[in-house]
Amino acid sequence: MKTPLVAPELRELIQRHDISTLQDFCKFMHPMAVADYLSTLPPHDIWEVLRVLEPNLRAEIFSNLDEDVQLEVAESLTRDELAQLISDMPPDDRVDLFKKIPPEKQDLILPALAKAEREDIRKLASYPEGTAGSVMTSDYVALPPDITVREAIERIRLEAPDRETVYYAYVVDEKRRLIGLVSLKDLILAPPHKLVKDIMYRDVIYARVTDDQEDVARMIQRYDLIALPIVNGDNVLVGIITHDDAADIITQEHTEDLEKFTAIGGPHEAGVYMKTPVWHYFRYRAPWVIGLAGLELISGFIIHSFEETLSSLIILAMYLPMMAATGGNTGSQTAALVIRALALGEVSARNFFKVIFKELQVGLLIGLLLGLLLWLKVSLFAQYGQIPAGLSASKVGFAIALAFSLQVLLATFLGASLPLAASALKLDPAFVAGPTLATLMDILGMLIYFSSAKIILNL
C-alpha cells in the first residue's frame, strides 16, 4: 500500500545525500514495501535512491514497482544505466520490462548488454503470450548426474546468489535434457560421497513451452510445487516457472474470466482498475451493454405479439419480471459452476452428457419446487379481478408454474451446454455466459411464458 507520508522524509534524505540512511532504509525493509514507498516519488528521485544500492537489491526493488512506474523510471535513465539495471534483473522480469520499452529504445539497449543476456531476452521474448514459455525464467540450478552430493552442494553455494530459487536443482544430461530432480533437502541429508543420479527423482513433473500458462499454474497449485521445469520439444530444459509467478498467472486468469463473464472487453489486466482511464472502460463496456440492450428488443416484440393474451389475463404481467430474473439467475449459476470446473480441469467437453444430466437433475428439482410455490400462490391467493370468468385460479397457476419450470430446465441446459460447447470449439467459455446468457434467457423465457399460457388456457 503506497504511503505518501514517507515521501517528504525520503526527499529530505535525497537532498542531503544521506546515502547510508537510504541504504539502511532499503536494506532492512521488504523490497515490496520499499517499492510502495518509492512509488510516491518522481522517477528521478526513485532512481536517486536505487542507484546507491547493491545491484541485486536494486533490481529486486525495481522489479516490485508497478509497470507504469518502471517505464517512467526507465525513460529517465541513460542507455548505460538502463542496460545495467536490466542486466541485474531476474530473467522473467527483465523480459517483461524489455517488451514494454519502445522498439527504438530496445534497439539502443541490446548492444549494451552482454551476449548471453541478449540471447536470453530474445529467446524468452520469442514465445507467444499466454504460453508457459512467455512467463518462465531461465534462472535455475542445473546439475550433471555424475557428480557427488558434496560437489553438488558446493556448486549450488556458488550459484545461489544469482538464482531465483535453489530449493530444487534439475539434473540434466550432456544435451541438457531433463532426466531428474533433486531437492536441497535431499542433498543436505544424503551422504556426501553419493552421486546425484543415485538420489534424484526420475519421475519429474514438467510442462512444455507451448502449454497454456493457466494449465501450468494449475499444475504447480495441484502438486504443491515451489517451481515447475519447462522443456522444449526435445525435452531440453529451457526454464522454470516459480510458485509466485503461478499465483500471478492465476490472479490474471481469474480477472480475465470474471470480466469476460460480465461482458467486459479489453486486455483484462489485474490490478489496474484505478490506473485505467474512464474512456477505456467506456470502450470496453459500452458495445456489450448497447448490443445486449438491442437484443432485449426481441423480448419486447414477443410481448407485443402476445398482447391479446396479456390483456385477457392481466395476472400474467405480475410475474413477467420474475420470469426474466429466474432464467438469468439459473443460467448464470449453472454457467459459473461449469466454467469454474472447466478452468480447474475437473470436467472437459468429453464429459458433456454427464454434466448435462447432472445439471438437468438440479434444474428439475429447482423447477418443481418453484413451480409448486407459484401454483400455490396463484391458486390460493389470486385476488378478485385477476382471474377472468371461465378460468380457474388453479388452472392459471398451473400454466404459470409450468412456464417457470420449463424456463429453469432450459436455463440449466443452456448454462451447462454453451460453456462445454465453447470449450470443445477452443473458444473461451466465459464469453457465452453472464449477461449474454441472461439476455438469451429473457427472450426464450418470454416465449415459453406466453406460449404456455396461450396453449393451456386457450387464450
Question: Care to describe what's here?
Answer:
The radius of gyration is 31 Å and the shape is elongated. It has helices at 7-15, 19-27, 31-38, 43-50, 55-63, 67-76, 79-88, 91-100, 103-109, 115-125, 132-135, 149-159, 184-189, 196-199, 213-223, 243-261, 278-295, 297-305, 307-312, 315-318, 320-343, 352-381, 393-424, 435-457; strands at 141-143, 168-172, 178-183, 207-208, 227-231, 237-242. The chain has 3 domains: 4-130, MgtE N-terminal domain-like (MgtE N-terminal fold); 141-248, CBS-domain (Roll); 296-457, Tetracycline Repressor, domain 2 (Orthogonal Bundle). It is mostly helical and 459 residues long. The strands form 2 sheets. A 3-stranded mixed β-sheet has the order 1-2-3. A 3-stranded mixed β-sheet has the order 4-5-6. The chain contains 24 helices and 6 strands. Helix 23 runs antiparallel to helix 24.
Largest sheet: 3 strands, mixed
- The parts where pLDDT drops under 50 for at least 5 residues are none
CATH fold field value of the largest domain: Tetracycline Repressor, domain 2
User: Can you give the mean pLDDT?
Assistant: 87
* β-strand number: 6
Total helix count? 24
Q: Which structural category fits the helices and strands?
A: mainly alpha
Beta percentage is 5-15%
Q: Which descriptor suits the 3D outline? A: elongated
CATH superfamily of the largest domain: SLC41 divalent cation transporters, integral membrane domain
